[in-house]
Design brief:
heterodimer; A: 337 residues; alpha/beta; Rossmann fold; Cytidine Deaminase, domain 2; 9-stranded mixed beta sheet; 5-stranded mixed beta sheet; B: 545 residues; MutS, DNA mismatch repair protein, Chain A, domain 3; 6-stranded mixed beta sheet; 4-stranded mixed beta sheet; elongated
């Protein structure tokens, strides 16, 4: 199976996103890099990694250390350049700063281990990915921030690889359920092109907005948190859409009359704004909750890590099979095999 | 003998005349230019020739820039890519540079070559053209492809190339040896190891575990309560190779250091050349910025004369002009001619007296710092000392009353002024009672009028100008305005528009008044126009009579 080659035909920039800290994102990244070596694919490797502390230099924990093959294009902060075990030809010193000095764009001349880091600012990140593709990379793999799903913003990548693992729960069924739930969120329908979408995107507000009889009403509330009762009062039978800019939690909808809930569509910026667990989500769906997003991003693959750093592990095959059954149309890869 | 520190003007004067503004508005592109401009010194009396040379250089650069627009554009883009690596260059004296540092210097050198090519092409004076660094570049770029990438390439050292080749071979050998072992295990025991040469077995599979335990080539490397991971044990051959690999890696690092040491020494040999080039590029950056600024703001070359005068036609205060232009207005240029002695600017409120005062300072100080001046024609004789005395918000922040800080500054001026000084005094003693204020102003004028000092004083005390030794320059103001028309226009205007309308009708030009004519009394007119209650204005008129 030439997984990466197939993915590279469809996507140019793929972010690796962890479901939780220690979900095995770096393991997944290393696996994919090895896979690329086997497939003879030229990779660009960078990270949206949050700007780490100085202690990173010592522990190396936050900046993933990966083994890179000759030819790979990679972004490395200046202060980590000398620490790299691989031979790196410096192509350019960028203006993108990090706490470990400006980011260098390098080409691997001698394979070996490298600690990667990339620009923190989205616009710079996009520029860097474009430059890597110009330099000949077939596919750019982006190491997302450690434990925040929200970093894989749609504008910085074409697709994500969701990295999940035993760390999520001691119960395998729970791991599968939560992962499938997250994949499901990433597949929420986008609000169709049309008047509603135009109204909401043009305003691009940081406030809660309603669409009432085809007209936009901007409410004086920026977050849905604790706004439930207030929202309930504002929603009448003429309201069709409710735009929530920030976190979409249970408390936003808890106080809305279930009857009203059925008639409205909630619109969110993207699926990462949803902070509702699988069980609750399913209950709400049954009550008639409809959610659409302004932006979404495809899930290209799911990687599973059957071991948890806290010491327990699942049977490899069992986990992969269960996961594949829950999300039949997305490739599931065991990164430990 | 005490060494005299020459200071032309204090920071406040540099700020209030607009010198700082002009320097800030100059579009410097290189770190070298930015550094040099902070250290720039004015020209003092006796240095007229050097100043004229500098002004001639700007003049030539204005022409060159106009004739070679696209090349100048490329030159500026090249400038923008430069970083201040002078410290790295200096560091080579005692230290070995890192790969990143050598990369940065190589980049800088490539940019120097580019500047050299461009500046030769447009025929810039030799003093601005960087010398070639090709000899050093050849050392840093042995393949000669002049790409701006860098690595301790194999071509730097045959030994390094050999060591690296050996290392790669050895890695390959280890890998293939391990693959062979993996195949052996597969054939013998039917076990498939991962590409990392390990295998994980569930603890429930006790038969499997028992079997694996018996294979000598596999050893337990990890265990948790559900499974055990076994890793391929390197056989003696692999172990030997791995040990050798470690040695090789150390040797490679050592050889890389040798190369870096050699390159750092080579760079050090050329450090004087590199630093001189940085200097030239900085000077080129500044002269180009001066020329482009002059061209963009219609500044001209001032004529530098021996006698102590400041004379100009159609002068524009650049900072004020910028504001007026932004508002869509048009700047009314001012001409003046000053020589040693006291000149007073009198006239209407809102008549631009203070701006004219600052303008004189701007023209004089810009010329003396070697800049073109915002006039159609200017003649400047150099000063030894310049100071402006003007109320500013800083004195209030320091908790001084306006009169207090004024007197403090007056003392500074009187203590420091020397032969060939330029003093610009804005409405002195206006913050105290008119009796003492007038007396003080008159005595200051008396003190200044026979000295070899150009003093320019704005004032509302008209009797000061009755002195025959004082030149009186009057703001034309609203003297020639059709007040009926002005009043009609102002009647329906809102507050902000009123100010703009008055500014539109105001004639800011200065006229020399020789006989003691009356100062026009425009204060009440303007107050009325700005909407002060009519009963107050009428009452004020009664008081005048």
């Amino acid at each position: 199976m030439y997984l990466l080659e197939e993915l590279s035909r469809e996507y140019k920039r793929i972010s690796i996103v962890g479901m939780a800290k220690n979900a095995g994102k770096t393991t997944a990244l290393n696996y994919l890099i090895e896979e690329a070596m086997d497939e003879d694919l030229l990779l660009g490797i960078t990270s949206t990694g949050r700007d780490g502390e100085g202690t990173d230099v010592v522990t190396g924990t936050d900046k993933p250390r990966v083994f890179l093959d000759t030819g790979t294009i990679v972004s490395v902060p200046t202060q980590l350049y000398e620490l790299a075990d691989a031979g790196l030809e410096i192509i350019r010193m960028t203006q993108y700063g990090s706490s470990l000095g400006p980011i260098l764009l390098c080409r691997v001349v001698d394979s070996g281990y490298v600690q990667i880091a990339g620009p923190v600012i989205n616009a710079q990140h996009i520029e860097m990915c474009e430059e890597m593709l110009r330099l000949g990379a077939d596919l750019v793999l982006i190491d997302g921030a450690i434990d925040r799903k929200s970093i894989a913003a749609p504008e910085t990548s074409d697709a994500i690889i969701l990295s999940t693992g035993a760390v999520l729960s001691r119960k395998m069924s729970k791991v599968v359920e939560e992962t499938a739930h997250t994949v499901g969120l990433y597949r929420l329908p986008c609000l169709e092109d049309g008047r509603e979408r135009n109204l909401l995107t043009e305003t691009n507000g940081e406030q809660i907005m309603l669409i009432k009889e085809d007209e936009l009403v901007v409410l004086d509330r920026s977050t849905g948190l604790g706004a439930g009762k207030y929202l309930d009062a504002e929603i009448d039978e003429t309201v069709t859409h409710v735009f929530v800019p920030g976190a979409f939690t249970h408390s936003v909808i808890a106080d809305i009359n279930p009857k009203k809930l059925k008639h409205i569509t909630f619109v969110l910026k993207d699926p990462t704004k949803i902070f509702i667990g699988a069980t609750m989500w399913n209950q709400l769906r049954k009550k008639g909750l409809t959610v659409k997003v302004l932006e979404n991003i495809p899930v290209a693959a799911v990687t599973v890590n059957p071991t948890s750093p806290s010491g327990y592990m699942f049977d490899h095959e069992e986990l992969v099979n269960a996961m594949q059954k829950a999300i039949p149309d997305i490739p599931v890869i065991d990164v430990r095999m | 003998m005490s060494t005299r520190i020459l200071r032309l003007a204090n920071p406040k004067t540099r700020r209030e005349t607009g010198l700082d503004y002009v320097i800030g508005a100059m579009n410097l592109q290189t770190p070298f230019g930015t550094k040099q401009i902070k250290e720039q010194k004015p020209f003092f009396p006796g240095q007229e020739e050097a100043l004229e040379e500098e002004l001639d250089r700007i003049e030539r650069m204005v022409e060159t820039a106009a004739a070679n627009k696209s090349d100048i554009g490329v030159l500026q883009e090249t400038f923008m890519m430069m970083k201040d690596n002078t410290f790295t260059i200096e560091r080579t004296e005692h230290s070995v540079l890192s790969v990143v540092e050598i990369f940065e210097l190589k980049n800088l050198m490539l940019l120097m070559e580019k500047v050299r090519t461009l500046s030769t092409k447009i025929d810039l004076p030799a003093e601005y053209v960087p010398d070639t660094v090709n000899e050093l570049l050849d050392i840093l770029d042995p393949s000669g492809d002049r790409l701006n990438t860098f690595y301790i390439y194999d071509s730097f050292s045959e030994k390094l190339a050999e060591l690296r080749r050996e290392k790669r071979n050895m890695e390959r050998e280890i890998r293939s040896r391990q693959k062979a072992l993996r195949n052996e295990i597969k054939e013998k025991h039917g076990l498939s190891l991962t590409p990392k040469f390990d295998i994980t077995v569930s603890k429930s599979d006790s038969a499997g575990i028992k079997m694996i335990e018996e294979i000598a080539d596999l050893s337990k490397s990890d265990e948790d309560y559900m499974s055990v991971t076994y890793t391929l044990v390197p056989d003696d051959e692999v172990r030997q190779l791995m040990l050798k690999l470690d040695d090789l890696t150390a040797d490679i690092e050592e050889e890389e250091l040798v190369v870096r040491e050699r390159l750092s020494k080579e760079i050090h040999k050329h450090s004087a050349l590199l630093l001189e080039n940085c200097d030239r590029i900085g000077r080129l950056d500044i002269i180009l910025a001066k020329a482009l600024y002059a061209a963009a703001h219609s500044c001209v070359k001032p004529e530098i004369v021996k006698e102590h005068i400041v004379e100009f036609e159609d002068g524009r205060h650049l900072q004020v002009e910028e504001i007026i232009k932004k508002k869509g207005g048009e700047y009314c240029p001012v001409s003046i001619s000053l020589a040693d002695g006291v000149t007073c600017i009198t006239g209407a409120n809102m008549g631009g007296k203070t701006v004219s005062l600052k303008l004189v300072g701007m023209v004089a100080i810009l010329a003396q710092y070697g800049y073109f001046v915002p006039c159609s024609r200017a003649k400047v004789g150099l000063s030894n000392f310049m100071q402006i005395l003007i109320g500013d918000s800083q004195s209030i922040e320091r908790g001084l009353s306006s009169f207090g800080s004024e007197m403090e500054e007056l003392k500074e001026i009187i203590d420091n002024s020397k032969d060939r000084s330029l003093l610009l005094i804005d409405e002195i003693a206006s913050g105290t009672n008119p009796v003492e204020g007038l007396a003080l102003t008159k005595s200051i004028v008396d003190y200044l009028k026979h000295q070899t000092i150009i003093s320019l004083i704005t004032t509302h005390f008209e009797t000061v100008t009755e002195d025959k030794d004082v030149v009186n320059m009057q703001v034309t103001g609203l003297a020639n305005v059709d007040f009926e028309k002005l009043n009609r226009e102002i009647r329906y205007a809102n507050r902000r528009e009123r100010i703009n309308i008055i500014q539109k009708y105001m004639d800011y030009r200065l006229q020399r008044v020789d006989n003691a004519t009356q100062i026009p009394k425009d204060a009440l007119n303007i107050a009325k126009m700005l909407g002060i209650d009519n009963s107050i204005i009428e009452k004020a008129k009664q008081y005048i009579v």
